[in-house]
Amino acid sequence: MKEKPNFSAVRFSRRSLLAAPLFRRPRGGLFRGTFFQPWARHLDWTPGQWEDLLDALAALGCEEIVLQWCRYDGFDYAPLAARLLDLARARRMRLLIGLPYSSRWWKGIEADAAQALEELADRARSFSDSAEASLWRRHPAFAAWYLPEEIDDDHWSAPARRRMLAGVLDRLAGSLRPLAASGFTNRRRSAFEVAEFWHELAARRRLARVLFQDGVGSGKMTLAAWPAYLEALRSRLGRRLDVVVEIFELRPAEAGFDAAPAPVDRIRRQVDLARRALRRAPQCFSLPDYATPQAGPAAAELYQTLAALAGQG
Known about the structure:
By secondary structure, this protein is an alpha/beta fold.
């Protein structure tokens, strides 16, 4: 199912983004950007399906897409990254490209955190030397590299573990700039402790951006508790902080993860909290899964509501 990326000999410049076709973006969109998780089925999508998806995201006001990973275990999504860069440029959007990811990450850090970090660093180092990385970082729609291994304060709060993680982030940031990472909290620590943890991790320009999940959809956070954490994170991270609004709600499941689009009233409350703190629209997880016509009837209904709100701006 794999295909080799179609590399072009063209040398890109930032000015060429301005040469992209003029695309009118609605001003009232709730979200500045969205995550996109690629799976094996996406490798079989037609060009028309990709055009429809990007048009839907643009109609909601998206300026950025975070491609969660460019490789997942044995699945190579490099062709999708190359396609998304070009589609994003045509709509004056930017793409954050996720580094290769291993599904062993969470079990690995439980068994041997140092080994799991070394494997992460090895994957990133190998990728940074690749032809794909060299080409993509010069594309006018490229925004940043994204670390798909999510970081939480539970696993990394101990001083020794925190130092190990910071050391690996130093190594990654040396060859993969700018670098963004995502994180969350299970609220086992105070807002001050979580903010200090992230302030230390992002120090010395290790991280250009921290995409912090609000945790409301996954049940890790409540709307009542979130403002204190949000303000503490904003005060320590400043402009490097981006809020990721979870636009889903969990459904009962015997095993695994099962979710559906969240009620729009709850989503708007989440967005309002993020906007008041950051003075700009947040990111979200995720429009392709929970708020596009391609994702089923409930997602199509949420899409229509968000599109109407975007058109009111």
